[in-house]
Write a structure and sequence with these properties.
alpha/beta, Nucleotidyltransferase, domain 5, 2 domains, five-stranded mixed β-sheet, two-stranded antiparallel sheet, 33% helix, globular
Length: 183
């Protein structure tokens, strides 16, 4: 009997998806049943995790504007966002919660200790004194993407810092990609 764990199943789905002429795949998997269909329309594969670092009081409008700008400039597909990630100290930040609610995205948060253990290309030791880690946006995007896969995570967009003149708050955004499928 062939045993299919979640990692090998995701790899199988990825290969099957790539071979589908329609380019779309629906999979229903239980321990006893595997049903595959390549005739499902309007399904989006979500592989991208957006890490956000922000100052208190950030608005959901500014978050939306900045993420769309980053995705446009880097030719990423907005609808492939699997979720938003940040430090646990921002778990109740109204703008983040409103944005995630409006976009129907999960918000994953991580402790400063966990974030501090992630190797990132652009650490900022200045913020360590404030939040206990040298990276929020990059580290949280990488951690969120790594929670769903054991394959390599790619940091597609290193942190981008935005300070808009009309808004007093600063926001930092990074995007990581998971190679496994999320529907």
């Amino acid at each position: 009997m062939f045993e299919l764990n979640s990692n090998t199943f995701a790899i199988f789905l990825e290969k099957y998806y790539q071979s589908c002429s329609a380019g779309i795949l629906l999979a229903i998997f239980t321990p006893h049943l595997l049903v595959l269909s390549k005739k499902v329309d309007n399904m989006v594969i979500k592989k991208l995790w957006v890490g956000i670092g922000c100052q208190k009081g950030i608005s959901q409008q500014l978050i939306n504007l900045v993420i769309k700008k980053v995705f446009q400039e880097n030719q990423l597909i907005y609808h492939e966002i699997a979720g938003i990630a940040t430090i646990d100290k921002k778990a109740s930040e109204i703008g983040l919660l409103e944005f995630c609610n409006l976009e129907k995205l999960p918000l994953k948060t991580f402790s400063a200790e966990l974030l501090n253990n992630v190797f990132v290309p652009n650490p900022n030791n200045t913020i360590t004194k404030l939040v206990g880690t040298s990276s929020v946006a990059e580290a949280s995007a990488i951690l969120a993407a790594s929670e769903i896969t054991s394959t390599e995570i790619m940091l597609l967009v290193p942190k981008q810092i935005f300070r808009l003149p009309e808004a007093p708050a600063t926001i930092t955004v990074a995007v990581a990609k998971s190679e496994n499928l999320i529907f």
